[in-house]
Amino acid sequence: RNDPSTSTIKHYIALGKAYATFYKTGAKAIYTNFRASQGIQDLVDTKHDSSIPTAVSANALTRSEFQLLYRNWHDIKRVPIFGLVFIICGEFTPLVVIALSSVVPWTCRIPRQIEADRKKLETRRGISFRNLIVEPPTEKGVGALERMQVLHISWSLGLSSSAWDWLGGQYPGLPTWVLRRKVASSVEYLELDDKLLGDPKRVDELEVEEVRMALVERGVDVLGKSSESLRADLIAWLKSRESAPVEKLLLTRPSVWPVKPQYLSDKSS
């Protein structure tokens, strides 16, 4: 007769091995993306003074190329720490990285982890919006934002660990100058990505998961929404950007953007 506890242990060991295989595949994908990005990076380095914003302004990059560079750099920065965790924990890595999502490269994140991270982020974003009492800016620029505003954007986009929230004060978290720098970097990225997305009609060309990722990066809730609603949100963002800066949209819900998503417009008509 089989011991249930033994069967359970064997099950988790097998599951751990499956995850280990998944992570190894993800690591290979990082290398593949690195190789694929080298030609693009060389172009940026040699013809645009190593400046991605300059390359984007010169229309030298497509959005796919821009995203490849951005995501590849995101993953490469995380390889040393994630690799160390994997070496130490081996098949138990999935149990560890649940609490350390920020160190996991995109190519090594399992769907369940992505879903859980988005749920936490949306909960945190909702709390922050309820506490946000400062009027959104009308002009472009992170420098003029108040601490509560840069803190909200940081919470909404997941720019810093929730562990910092345990620090004291009325508005806990990282020092304002650190938050401002993180937010400024995100705003610049979104401005470039918006330019490369271009015509809102192009949103229909994106895969649904690409739309989700774009919305998460813009502080928009995605869980439980249909593909039509997700596309409507991104289209509304791009149309709103014609008259509003990124900072204002990050500090407001889609329901009060200059151009509301189609599904909200239909309800109000």
**What is the number of strand segments?**
0
Alpha-carbon distance between the termini?
A: 67 Å
**Mean pLDDT, all residues:** 89
Estimate percent helicity.
55-70%
Instruction: Give the overall silhouette.
Output: globular
Characterize the biggest β-sheet.
none
Quaternary: single chain
Number of domains: 2
Share of residues in strands: under 5%
Identify low-pLDDT runs. none
Structural class: mainly alpha
Count of discrete alpha- or pi-helical segments spanning 4 or more residues: 11
Rg computed from alpha carbons, rounded to a whole number of angstroms: 21 Å
Spell the H/E element sequence: HHHHHHHHHHH
Explain what the structure shows.
It contains eleven helices and no strands. The protein is 64% helix and 0% strand. Helix 1 packs across helix 3 (63-89) and helix 6 (147-157) crosses helix 7. It has two domains: 1-109, no CATH class; 110-269, no CATH class. The longest helix has 44 residues, at 4-47. By secondary structure, the chain is mainly α. It has helices spanning 4-47, 52-57, 63-89, 93-97, 111-131, 147-157, 176-197, 208-217, 227-240, 246-250, 262-268.
TL;DR?
The protein is mainly α and 269 residues long.
Which labels suit this protein?
269 residues, 2 domains, globular, membrane, Letm1 RBD domain-containing protein, transmembrane helix, ribosome binding, mitochondrion
Q: Can you lay out the helices and strands and say which pair or pack?
A:
Layout: H1 4-47, H2 52-57, H3 63-89, H4 93-97, H5 111-131, H6 147-157, H7 176-197, H8 208-217, H9 227-240, H10 246-250, H11 262-268
Helix pairs in contact: 1-3, 5-6, 6-7, 8-9
GO biological process, one term: intracellular monoatomic cation homeostasis
Transmembrane segments: 81-106
GO molecular function: ribosome binding
